[in-house]
Amino acid sequence: MIRNGHGEAGAAGRRVPAGQRAVRVWCDGCYDMVHYGHSNQLRQARAMGDYLIVGVHTDDDITLTVDGRDTYEEVKQAGRYRECKRTQGVSTTDLVGRMLLVTKAHHSSQEMSSEYREYADSFGKCPGGQNPWTGVSQFLQTSQKIIQFASGKEPQPGETVIYVAGAFDLFHIGHVDFLEKVHKLAKRPYIIAGLHFDQEVNRYKGKNYPIMNLHERTLSVLACRYVSEVVIGAPYSVTAELLSHFKVDLVCHGKTEIVPDRDGSDPYQEPKRRGIFRQIDSGSDLTTDLIVQRIIKNRLEYEARNQKKEAKELAFLEAMRQQEAQPAGETN
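Below the sequence we write its predicted structure tokens.
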């Protein structure tokens, strides 16, 4: 078991008054490609008790036992089962689908091509016959959603305001490792994350990036314990005005390539001029590109296995057909 702690009470639990019994909550799942929907589930689960324990399933993630019973049957019968409200507009299946389709339709309102629609329709169907995802994000941002994730705290005297910026697309452990390293740069850090507009991310990343739109990326970053504030739609270049407005003490960037701004200038030239720029090595090799490549590789291997299986089945059926077509009594 890995214990998680943050602040005085700890990220997984809160202080319980003397003489009272702590309510321990168990929440489990696959949590593959953790996104803000998972974060919202854990937030709700934590609010149901005093101490939250999270179980991560093995790669055989199932909801039924080997004999076909509901894995939660026992706790349901005991009246100890509660369900968290699902976060609409996001799922791992949805995100995987966006990665497999080389299109920008998931973060824009442009019309889908016939090829895109045909592939999207054939990718998977839910029991009701509806597509479980369309490649276009169905997420609708509201102020309430932001409030649920935001800390609501402003920088206090004596805190070091640190600014970081980027896409933070498919928020993953590489991002977390980077932010953790940044968090350790000061005794009392206040980290502000600037998230670039979708069009800006697509300019310097290309292909079908970003996979998640700006509003989705906002919640993903806000869910991180190391981040205090998020600038939604931050300018690509870290300007003097931005540094003054947020009273920034330090600007940090990872080891990834720094792409010049549209005019060819260095987006970090102002913090570098002031001597407050730091490049941080997260120690992690995981990137959004690697995740996408892994998904595509797994998909291609899955299709190859299916094609091989289908070829064997067709060969078997053809052999059976030829055998049935032979005249009675004739053998080879």
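The chain has eleven helices and seven strands.
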